[in-house]
């Protein structure tokens, strides 16, 4: 699994006020990206997307995942075994749930994308990046 870093001491490249984020994002997107929310399983737009392309952070547009690393996990969220580039996501401790998790954030705007788990032995990395559809935008191609 990719190394988990402590909370970022770096500033996001893209900085906006909550009002600016709210003007840009839907209520659901804001709750996930800016407040660390999680969609209900099987409710996301991209849970069953099977065509090739790239997934970009819905907040800032940075590419974060590619469909070539996508796999069927039956978890209810779009699942990937690796980001498109290790530098495009940050992994941070998340102690807000019932058990400790590792949050996946966009490295450019620090938007919350989802969580990563080391429970996918069927993949080349063993990792399952469980990503909220509300946090990303899919561009085919």
From TrEMBL:
Organism expressing this protein natively: Trujillonella endophytica
EC supergroup of this enzyme: oxidoreductase
Gene Ontology terms, MF aspect: peptide-methionine (R)-S-oxide reductase activity
Gene3D superfamilies in the record: Peptide methionine sulfoxide reductase
Gene Ontology BP annotations: protein repair; response to oxidative stress
Catalysed reactions, semicolon-separated: L-methionyl-[protein] + [thioredoxin]-disulfide + H2O = L-methionyl-(R)-S-oxide-[protein] + [thioredoxin]-dithiol
GO cellular component term, pick one: cytoplasm
The MsrB domain, residue ranges: 18-141
EC number: 1.8.4.12
Domain of life of the native organism: Bacteria
Keywords for this protein: Oxidoreductase
Protein name: peptide-methionine (R)-S-oxide reductase
PANTHER family tied to this protein: METHIONINE SULFOXIDE REDUCTASE (PTHR10173), METHIONINE-R-SULFOXIDE REDUCTASE B1 (PTHR10173:SF52)
């Amino acid at each position: 699994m990719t190394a988990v870093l402590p909370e970022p001491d770096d500033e996001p490249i893209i900085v906006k006020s909550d009002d600016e984020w709210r003007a840009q994002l839907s209520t659901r997107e804001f709750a996930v990206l800016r407040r660390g929310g999680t969609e209900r399983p099987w409710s996301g737009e991209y849970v069953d997307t099977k065509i090739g392309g790239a997934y970009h952070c819905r907040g800032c547009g940075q590419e974060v995942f590619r469909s070539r690393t996508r796999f069927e996990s039956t978890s209810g969220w779009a699942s990937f075994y690796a980001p498109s580039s290790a530098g495009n996501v940050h992994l941070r401790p998340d102690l807000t749930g019932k058990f400790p998790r590792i949050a996946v954030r966009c490295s450019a705007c620090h938007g919350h994308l989802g969580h990563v788990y080391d429970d996918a032995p069927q993949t080349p990395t063993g990792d399952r990046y469980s990503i909220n559809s509300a946090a990303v935008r899919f561009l085919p191609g």
